[in-house]
Design a protein that fits this description.
about 130 residues; mainly alpha; 4 helices; elongated
Length: about 130
């Protein structure tokens, strides 16, 4: 358990680490598959656009641009989530998973259950968000 100064690292049993590793790996693989499918869909959308743009009016062009923007946004979101899962797996291997990067205290299990890739406790997350705004 971490002390008030946060210098002690929250130690997990090898069974807990293995269980977390399996969950993070499954999450990463799920996100990776979603990302690859979104890339393929985006590619198909572009091929259809290239072959089907003759005679487009402004509304058609605007609609296609909106679809392309939405596809790009989805790709960025999936890539970000996949990267977060990958980073969480690296932190698990390093022995820092589950401890806040801001204060070094353990991140509550309830937060990790909802957001397994969390790198900060709720308090440090709120402080970061206030500084960013």
């Amino acid at each position: 358990m971490a002390g008030k100064g946060g210098s002690a690292v929250n130690r997990r049993s090898s069974e807990e680490v293995d269980q977390i590793r399996v969950l993070l790996r499954a999450r990463f693989e799920e996100l990776d598959a979603e990302y690859e499918e979104a890339v393929a869909q985006s590619h198909r959308l572009r091929l259809v656009e290239i072959g089907d743009s003759a005679g487009d009016d402004q509304a058609d062009s605007g609609s296609k641009t909106a679809e392309r923007d939405a596809a790009g946004s989805l790709l960025r979101t999936l890539l970000d989530r996949r990267t977060q899962a990958e980073y969480a797996m690296q932190r698990l291997e390093d022995g820092t998973y589950g401890n806040c990067e801001g204060c070094s205290n353990p991140i509550p299990v309830e937060r990790l259950e909802v957001f397994p890739s969390a790198t900060t406790c709720v308090n440090c997350k709120q402080v970061r968000e206030r500084r960013a705004s």
